[in-house]
Design brief:
The protein is α/β, with parallel strands linked by helices and 416 residues long. It has one domain: Alpha/Beta hydrolase fold, catalytic domain (Rossmann fold, 3-Layer(aba) Sandwich), CATH 3.40.50.1820. It has 13 helices and 10 strands. The chain has a 10-stranded mixed beta sheet with strand order 1-2-3-5-4-6-7-8-10-9, sandwiched between helices. It is globular, with a radius of gyration of 24 Å. Bound molecules: alpha-D-glucopyranuronic acid. The site of alpha-D-glucopyranuronic acid has 8 residues, from loops.
Amino acid sequence: MIGKTMSKRPLSVTAVAIAVLLLLLMVWSRLATTNAKWDGDAHIEVPDYTLPDPLITEDGRQLRTAEQWKSFRREQVLELFREHVYGRRAGEPDTLSFDLLEEDPQAMAGRATLRRLMIRSQVDDREHTFELIIFLPNSAAGPTPLFLLMNNRGPENTDPTREQQSGFWPAEEIVERGYGIAALQVRDLAPDDADHYREGVIRLFEGDQQVRPGDAWAALAAWGWGASRAMDYFEQNEDIDASQIGLVGHSRGGKASLWAGAEDERFAMVVSNNSGCGGAAVSRRRVGERLSQINNTFPHWFASNFHQYNGREHDLPVDQHMLIALIAPRAVYVASASEDLWADPRGEFLAVAHASPVYALWGQEPIDPDAMPALNQPLREGVRGYHIRSGAHNLTPYDWARFIDFADRLRGGEED
Ligand code: GCU
């Protein structure tokens, strides 16, 4: 080579060491943000509290077997929630029918079959209708497991035409993973409004009855009643595997999905996303939303008896770990979001953990209340699952993907 020779100075050892150190730091900080232990509530003071023991009956007897739970204790706990929290929902209507409004076997570019149904109920001379939207994967070889969302947001989130697509109900992604996906609009069952909530299924059963008892059902229970009517349809449709239905609700919808799953044991899996107060979160912690706040702002969600516990959480005969226990031995998945302090993420996790004694009646391993999983690190313990996603109050494709991972593993019969 003519001319200058290029200087080939070897990289100094110090420079290499610094580069390696920087790289390690980057990897570490990335791991630290994705796998961090969540301490977003470290500044919040929690009062001392004692949770009611789900395995001690009202007359002080200690339960030991699943048989005892099934034969009487479950019903006792259910009654306590009906009486003091959600109210008593109606049974089946006098007549129930399903009218097919539309069927499109070429939906989602040929990947799914869309079905839109009108669910029609009659009681005396009154009638109520609401719509159910279903997409079933065309790739399915047999009856399909399915997720049903109780949609508490606008119907554009569950658009059957798919012109509008929303991460709140990522139907394409769910179909892609081999599951059916359905939605009902909670407002069709009971308008989400204190002045009008009776103008749906409550009126169907009660007519214009003026005086309502303290344990009369309200909006959350009415929404769940609709999920049960959708289940009636799944049970009589051979393309759907009614023994593998996951009921999903977000926020107020998640409070309703947990209660619906407690009332109706046909749901194999119940999912609560960011459900908070009156949902998965332990009320006695008094972190985030309090009973007085929820009852004053949304007086139409719970039975009026529940209002007696405003500021008196410790006097409730139940707490929300017992709601999770009512789902046993079926699958339950609770999801939180790190910025959603209003819903008390730790309280949501604790309800799942403190349901352990009831799940243990079926040989399920306990979940340690002190071992809340790190951010974005889903926990599965037998038929119970939990995650805390980093970010805000919302139902996102990340959350759905975790619900499906969980369902896949349950269906695969995988052990931890
Ligand atoms: C309000 C309410 C919560 C509820 C939420 C929602 O924030 O206080 O209890 O979960 O709305 O449904 O989005």
